[in-house]
Amino acid sequence: MELALKNLSVEVDGRQLFHVENSQVSKGNKIGFVAVNGSGKTTLLKLILSSNPAIIKHASIGYLPQQTREIGASGGEKVRLTLAKVLLGDHQLLLLDEPTNFLDIAALAALETFLKDYPGTFVLVSHDQTLIARCTTQTWTIKQGLMTTKMAPSEDDLQAHLRLLEFQKDQLIQDPDADLNAIQKINQQIMALRK
């Protein structure tokens, strides 16, 4: 499987959303794709899905489109069934567009476990920063019309960040003038890293 995004403009109706200078995806890469809504994440996934030979070669692609609304009580079941079909298919590349929409806690935990252990390649669009941090090896972001790639932090980096947050929390707790919202925000970050 080869996926190469080189000198690529991602456009909708002739309007450029963002530009990709050079991004290579190798077998086994686990990519989180984060950006604000409307920035072109889904558009890029659809471009990859189109199997343009200038972008992707020799790959069977499993695609989970973004679920924009849940239809009744069975809607969540339909989402889980569609997700399971994509995840368990015989694909070299998974394109997952907001797969956590409408999943309950047990299904979210199962998805996280699957993605952590998955030996293949995937691109995961999600606003769930915890899922991205736990399951991916690199992150694509879109800022100021340019897509950039950065490697995910190592376990040592995460532990160092956790220690820093705990220190900051302790300092705030000792300060009688500290803002309670700041303490709560740091505490939420600590809890997310400990999961």
From TrEMBL:
Organism, as annotated: Lapidilactobacillus mulanensis
The keyword Manganese appears for this protein: no
Protein name as catalogued: ATP-binding cassette domain-containing protein
GO molecular function, one term: ATP binding
Keywords assigned by UniProt, alphabetized: ATP-binding, Nucleotide-binding, Repeat
Coiled coil: none
All residue ranges annotated as the AAA+ ATPase domain in the record: 27-146
Keyword Repeat: yes
PANTHER family, per the entry: ATP-BINDING TRANSPORT PROTEIN-RELATED, RIBOSOME PROTECTION PROTEIN VMLR
